[in-house]
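Re: export button greyed out
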Amino acid sequence: MADYKYYWEDFAVGEVATFGNFEVTREEIIAFASEYDPQPFHTDEELAKKSFIGSLCASGWHTSAMVMRIICDGYLLDTAGMGAPGVEESKWRAPVRPGDILSVTRECLDRRVSKSRPEMGLTTFRHSARNQHGEDKMIMTGTMMIARRDPTAGEG
Amino acid sequence: MADYKYYWEDFAVGEVATFGNFEVTREEIIAFASEYDPQPFHTDEELAKKSFIGSLCASGWHTSAMVMRIICDGYLLDTAGMGAPGVEESKWRAPVRPGDILSVTRECLDRRVSKSRPEMGLTTFRHSARNQHGEDKMIMTGTMMIARRDPTAGEG
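Workaround output, generated via the alternate export path:
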């Protein structure tokens, strides 16, 4: 196994950390949406102005992807991650628009050793994204599978 | 308001429909992951082979985005959609790999008129993605806001 900075043991319940500065651009909003979510209020500034939302905003899936990139750069690429079975809840709290600079706060809510695969643990995180003005943009809560540094230890 | 094919009234609880044929390619898996989820098992075939997952697979966020594109092409671009507050649950059931051809089955689970905004309704859908061999790949359950054709009517 490659040597990582962080293993399952390194995320303690209650710990809070903040990462990232991801600048959202008009070009990237349109490029992502053209590929994956071509609703007009995500792809066309003029049509967005006439829509219920009033101006161009990012697809929620694009916001999710940007949050994932902040998570990767913030700690996950240095972590012995083993994937995730899904996301328990994603809330898009407010539209993400060009000029927003996103950061993500990670809270560790729960952790346990896998019963069926003792080489790994399961850790539940809440990731909250805000812009540079402190406006809540997105919350996602989910469980990640992370390799244990010492699979022979107890519940750490 | 633009004229759409489908309004809130057109989605009946219990209705089931299937859409799409989205072919997943190695190039797109790597391109998406390089931008938004650069964990090595999503960006590099050789490193993926040596990883816990054994071969290159799509980021779960990429799978979510591909499912959204199938939803858009299948019905949402013809629907008076007004966004979504989030996703109640996303489950990535199995890795999505190059050569998978994804389709999505939509089940309408629940619907109601918004109390605060009577011009729209809220409809809960479960979208299940499978590949061409019928393997379950992803389930997402969430509520969409959809404009009503006739906001003066009762609960439709």
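The two ends of chain A are 20 Å apart (CA to CA). The button fix ships in the next patch.
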